[in-house]
Every structure is written in C-alpha cells, then in structure tokens.
Specification:
By secondary structure, the chain is α/β, with parallel strands linked by helices. Helix content is 32%, strand content 18%. The chain has one domain (28-270): 3-Layer(aba) Sandwich (Rossmann fold). It binds S-adenosylmethionine (SAM).
C-alpha cells in the first residue's frame, strides 16, 4: 500500500485541495444522506432497516472511497458469504444489546475480508458481536482466509465469559479467542504484527472513549505499513475521542476517513 510521501504538500478531500498544515480541521469524511435517520433498536439489532440492495450500495460507496484514498487495496468481498455469516450470528450468538447497525456489521466484515489480518485485536468487545463482525472472516463456516490470532479483549469478566461462549459456538479452532483484561495492557503485550486493530472500549472513568489513543499507542509499534485501525463511535463520541481523532488525522501518520453512515460512525485509518 502506498504511503503518502512527506513531499506531498496538498491532498484531496471532499472539500477540495488543502495545505496539510490545515488538515486537522478538514478531515476526510464519507457522509450518507440518511445517516441521522438510519437507526437501529439496540435490542433488536438484526431487524432489516433497508432493502439489501440499498445496504450493498452504501457499503460499496464507502469501500470505493477508502480504496480511492488507498486505505484499502481493493473493494471486493463475497456478499453471499457475508449473508451466511450474518445468519450464523443471529442463530448462535447471545446478544443482550448492540449498537452495531447492519451497515456497520457489513462494513466491518468486508474490511476484514479485504485486509485479511493474520493478527486482529479488538478492544472492548462486550458480548462479542463487534468482535465476530471482524473475526468472522477468518474463522467459522464462512471464513475467507486463514488467520493466526483473532483476539477479543474485554475488561468485564462476566462479559468476557459471555463473549467467549458466543465465540466458541462459532469457531471450534481456537484461532478466535477472548482475553479478559485491560486492552491497553493486552495490546501492549502482544508481540506479533497487528494488521488490524478495532477500538470500542469505553474505559473505566470519565475519559470513556478517550482511552482509544492509549490503546492505539500501546500497539502502534507492532503495526506494519498498511495496517488498519477501526474506531467505532467516531460520530456520537467524537468529543470524547478528540485526542484520538486529532492523532489519526495527521496525514504523516495515517490516512483516515470518517465514515458517517449511521449515528455511531467509524473512523477508518491506515498506517
Ligand atoms: C460500549 S461497549 C461496546 C459495545 C459495542 N459497541 C456494541 O455495540 O456491541 C464497550 C466495552 O468496552 C469494555 N471496556 C471498557 N474499558 C476497557 C478496557 N480498558 N479494556 C477492555 N475493555 C474495556 C466495557 O466493559 C464494555 O463492555
């Protein structure tokens, strides 16, 4: 994957060309016209919100924008396998609630199918729904590649236990597994390349999602060029995440796109 040259003094965004000195105030954004209306019932997350072709079209547009920015190398994923995966989650997972919309579930699965991380770490995975949206491309009945370690990290012991039960109903190989602990510690101790890091931990104090930057910095040295960082809640928690968003939106560090297609949002950044 091409890294933007430090000699590249301007860059394109939806707002046109800009000097990089002003970049942080003009992040790349993908904005769906209906993002404020597109809402799930957290307790009924698999209720259809739109026709399948509408979901496919919006996810395809996001992937095209990410490819245009060279955050991902291409836009192809197997929609039929994704549909089988979605059905398997409905049948096998105990999900008390989730904020992962069908669009988000599809985008996470597609990004993992495209990037195919050998090692994927997901921080703050609650019951495991977000985790399997990422890991479901490397394990289970519809795996599209062979992974080494797909690790979900959850600080609450009871939720970590529930997530592990859910994941075991999906993956018999043990490639996907849950670690009960603090994501800053677990990510910092991981000694293999991290090709994809998913961030969703809300911390244990008032900083809440402000913990994203600590988790990223704990793992950054292990992230090769082309590694992806996916940060959930880039819209509804943007204020709490402002240090993190400022960090990943410096183009000498990352190429980053804020995906605004639901009220939560996802910041997708490539090393
Ligand atoms: C809000 S939930 C994520 C839910 C997810 N967005 C969904 O819709 O399914 C955040 C999770 O992060 C966990 N968490 C908070 N701080 C953490 C930390 N330092 N390390 C690991 N997990 C953490 C919380 O216990 C919680 O289960």
């Amino acid at each position: 994957m091409r890294k933007r040259s430090s000699f590249d003094l301007s860059a394109q965004s939806e707002y046109g060309s800009h000097n990089l000195n002003n970049w942080s105030s003009m992040p790349h954004q993908f904005v769906a016209a209906d993002w404020e209306q597109y809402r799930i019932d957290y307790h009924n997350p698999f209720q259809a919100l739109e026709a399948p072709e509408e979901e496919i079209a919006i996810v395809d547009k996001v992937l095209a924008r990410l490819a245009e920015l060279q955050i991902i190398p291409h836009t192809r994923y197997d929609r039929a396998r994704f549909e089988t995966f979605r059905q398997a989650v409905i049948e096998r997972f105990e999900i008390p609630w989730t904020a992962i919309t069908p669009r988000m579930q599809c985008l996470l699965w597609a990004l993992n199918a495209i990037r195919q991380p050998r090692n994927m770490l997901a921080a703050g995975i609650f019951c495991g729904n977000t985790f399997i949206s990422n890991a479901g491309t490397g394990v289970g009945p519809d795996a599209v590649y062979q992974a080494d370690n797909l690790v979900g990290i959850e600080i609450k012991l009871d939720e970590a236990a529930r997530a592990e039960r859910n994941v075991r109903a999906f993956d018999e190989t043990g490639v996907a597994y849950i670690v009960a602990g603090d994501a800053v510690q677990v990510v910092g101790a991981f000694d293999k390349p991290i090709e994809l890091l998913y961030l969703d931990a809300n911390g244990t104090d008032a900083r809440s999602k402000g913990i994203y930057l600590d988790i990223l910095q704990a793992g950054l040295a292990q992230m090769p060029q082309g590694a992806l960082v996916l940060a959930h809640n880039s819209v509804n928690c943007a204020e709490k995440m402002s240090d993190y968003l400022d960090f990943v939106r410096v183009p000498q560090r990352f190429t980053s796109l804020n995906v605004i297609f639901d009220v939560e949002g996802l910041e997708v950044s490539a090393v």
